[in-house]
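Much of our argument rests on the idea that a fold can be written as discrete symbols. Part of our work consisted of pairing the sequence of a single chain with a tokenised description of its backbone. The amino acid sequence and the backbone structure tokens for this protein are reproduced below.
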Amino acid sequence: MRVAVTGTTGRVGAALARHLSDKHEVITLPRQDFDLLDPSALAGALERLECDVLINPAGITGLEACEDDLFHACHSGEATSWHGMATAVVEEMAARGVIRTTPEITALKLDEVEAFRATRPKFTAMDNGRLAKLMGAPPRPWREAVADYVRDRCALL
């Protein structure tokens, strides 16, 4: 089967492409060939694409690119940090008996994150209200998504 995967310069797209390449012919669609910020180019690329399945894990994750006309596609629930999410993951793993104790996870301060191009405010939370309105319901809570992910991944161990 010919499987096209977008976002193959990102973590999820690259991992999917690697995983699927054992059993399928994978057509990689990195940003330079399939730019989500250029809708007119996307239409042409989709018309020329010859595949059986299109998987679209591509995302625009940079805050600078997300601030204009894009939907904030994030789970609902109380705002948290990457540290809070990592803590939730290890707590879920401990609750499922995958690990015996939860390791200490050290939070980084914003000024310690070298990857940011611009200064970040102390607290930012994305509003997924536009996405919820489009879908007719809010996205599921992030804690529920984390629990499902950990359950599914741990089942493979």
Q: What stands out?
A: The longest helix spans residues 82-95. The chain has six helices and three strands. The two ends are 28 Å apart (CA to CA).
